[in-house]
Each structure stands twice: as structure tokens, then as C-alpha cells.
Amino acid sequence: MRVLITGAHGQVGHELVRLAPAGFTVIALGSAELDISNPEQVASKVVELQPQLIINAAAYTAVDKAESEIDHAYAVNAKGPENLATATGKLGIPLLHISTDYVFSGDATTPYKESDATGPTGVYGASKLAGEMAVAKHCPHHIILRTSWVFGAHGNNFVKTMLRLAQARDELGVVADQQGCPTSAASIAKALWALATEFFKEGGLNWGTYHFSNTPATTWHGFSEEIFRQAVELKMLAKAPKVNPINTVDYPTPAQRPAWSVMDCSLIQEKLNIELSDWRDELAEMLKEITL
Ligand SMILES: NC(=O)c1ccc[n+]([C@@H]2O[C@H](COP(=O)([O-])OP(=O)(O)OC[C@H]3O[C@@H](n4cnc5c(N)ncnc54)[C@H](OP(=O)(O)O)[C@@H]3O)[C@@H](O)[C@H]2O)c1
Q1: Which of 150, 156, 158, 160 to mutate to test the pocket of ligand 1 (most atoms within 8 A of CB)?
Q2: Confidence label for 292 from pLDDT (cuts 50, 70 and 90)
Q3: Which of 160, 228, 259, 285 has the highest CB neighbour number within 10 Å of its CB?
Q4: Over the stretch 206-251, which tens digit does the pLDDT of each residue have?
């Protein structure tokens, strides 16, 4: 069972490689070995390496920089998945692709379902939506897994930023008017491997687009308080800084962030038997890993 992982050195890519179940032959390629935005390279690698399934963990994820690096964001997030989907679609190879809550506008007040209208407000979300559409168009055997607020021991993320800030400050302001679900890179990797395993066992999957995140919903402020609580408990921090709730308007960024990022993840539980985990437990696992 040969599985090609693209973007293998990113947060999720790293966990996919680390958590690969026994019995899989993993071909892990970073951007230096396979640039997904290059159609010829993608087509020739797929023919050369003959994977039986591809997991695309590669993406341009610099949400703010994307506002000024529009071509780069689209090359990786839209053209990249299109290249992979075209190559896999022709050969009948399934493609598991990761997308984002940023395809939605963030105006909702109830959890987004897969069938809800999309409406990205920034370049990153729009480029990821274009990638989703290309995957759906060119590769019939696809899973698009939309996830949110990713954190992991490997790479840069909100947890690491908070821990770094806490070393230097006694007090900080964190946005308290954006709702979403933190999701560990490890849990995403486990879900994708469960799907890959099921595919090889059954010869198929309930293809389509699914929402996947950890539970329950919180705000960045709530997330930061739990990070500090656990970090103090683990003695990673001598004491927790005071966390002042602030509003999005008080923390301007080049890209607009959705106020509501909560996704309804019932479909993936019902149709693909994927269980959801609590991000507080996932955070504990991650913190243990970085203290070792
Ligand atoms: N991070 C989040 O909070 C978040 C939230 C929702 C959804 N997602 C989605 O989750 C997936 C994984 O994200 P992540 O957090 O693991 O991202 P990440 O840590 O930024 O990793 C992305 C990887 O993609 C690689 N990459 C960039 N351009 C490439 C190219 N042209 N060809 C091949 N590889 C390329 C990068 O390699 P280089 O460093 O060498 O460029 C990097 O290792 C993405 O689809 C992302 O959109 C992420």
C-alpha cells in the first residue's frame, strides 16, 4: 500500500509521516522534492513513484502574506491541487486533500455544514476554495477534509506563539470575538490514515467533502487560557500571564478573519466513522511532546 504524501514537512505532513500505520509504504516528499504547483513535475512523479493513494498536505498557509502574494497563494493552493487531481484522476488514484474553514465568510451563528454556501473573505480562503473545486472536478475519487485552527508539535502555530509570548510578558491581549475549533495536526493525520486504511480494506470510500475538527468550540482567548493552564501544570511556565480579552478590531491584520469558524462535523462521523477528539486532550499530548 504505497501512499504519497506531499508537503511532508509541514505541521500535518510531519504527523502523517510520524503516525503512518504499519503496512503502508510512505513516500514523503517536501516542496524541494515535489513542487505541486509544477504540472509536469507532478505528472512525472506520479507515474514514476506509482502511489496507490495520495494525501495532499502541501499548501500556502501564510494567511496575511497571501493578501499581497496572490499569485503564489493560487499557484500552491489552487493550481497545486488541480495538478494532483488531474494526474490522479487520469490514473484512477484516490486523492485525500486538506482544506479550511476559511472557505466560509464567518457570518454564521450555527456550525457550518458541508452543504452551506462558501464565501471566502480573503485570498487564502479563495485560493483554497479554488483548490477544492479543482479536486472535485478532476479527481472523482477524492476526499476534501476541511479543518480549522491547526496546531502541532512541529511547525509554527498559535500554541507555540502563546508559549513564546508568555516567556517574555506578564500580560497579553488575545482576540475573544472569533469562535472556532482548535484541531491538532496529529488528529487530522489519524483521521486521514483511518480513511486510507478503510480505502485499502474496502476498495472505496464515501467520496466527497467533509468537515473535521476537534471539539468543543472556543475563542482564541479561551484557547490561550487553556494553553497557559496546561503549560503551568506541566511546569513549562512558572506562571500564566494575565490574558486580556480583546476584539478583532483591536488587532488589525491584512487578512480578515472569520468571526465564526465552527463547522458541523456530524457527516464525517456518520458516513466515514471518524471520531472527534477534545482539543484539550490533543493539546496535552502536544505539550508533552515538546517538553520531552
Ligand atoms: N494551519 C492552520 O491553522 C490550518 C487551518 C485550516 C486548514 N489548514 C490546512 O491544512 C493543511 C496543512 O496545513 P499545515 O498547517 O500543515 O501547513 P504548513 O505547516 O504551512 O505546511 C504546508 C507545507 O506545504 C509545503 N508547500 C508549500 N508550497 C508547496 C509547493 N509548491 N509544493 C509542495 N509543497 C509545498 C510547505 O513546504 P515549504 O515550507 O518548504 O514551503 C509546508 O511544509 C493545508 O491544506 C492548510 O490549508 C491549515
Answers
A1: 150
A2: low
A3: 228
A4: 999 999 999 999 999 999 999 999 999 999 999 999 999 999 999 8
Residue 33 sits at φ, ψ, to 5 deg, of: -90, -30
Q: Which residues of 104-138 are buried (b: 16+ CB within 10 A; e: fewer)?
A: bbbebeebbebebebebbbbbbbbbbbbbbbbbeb
The answer to whether the beta carbons of residues 173 and 251 sit under 8 Å apart is yes
Output the nine-digit C-alpha cell for 169. 510578558
Which residue out of 12, 102, 262, 263 has the highest number of ligand 1 atoms within 8 Å of its CB and is therefore the one to mutate? 12
The closest alpha carbon to 223, from 212, 234, 214, belongs to 214
Q: Could you tell me if the CB of 149 is within 6 A of ligand 1?
A: yes
What digits encode the pLDDT tens for the residues 167-195? 999 999 999 999 999 999 999 999 999 99
CA of 147 to the centre of ligand 1 (A): 12
Question: What is the Å distance from ligand 1's center to 244 Cα?
Answer: 30
The answer to the question of residue 106 being in a domain is yes
Residue 248 lies in a domain: no
Bridge partner list, 149: none
Number of compact structural domains in the chain: 1
**Domain around 272:** 2-156+182-216+262-276
- Is 16 part of any domain? yes
**Is any ligand 1 atom within 6 A of the Cβ of residue 11?**
yes
Name the closest-CA residue to atom 15, ligand 1: 11
Contact call for residues 127 and 77 (beta carbons, < 8 A): yes
Please report whether residue 162 resides in a domain: no
Catalytic residues: 124
Tell me if 148 CB under 6 Å of ligand 1.
Answer: yes
Closest-lying ligand 1 atom to the alpha carbon of residue 37: 31
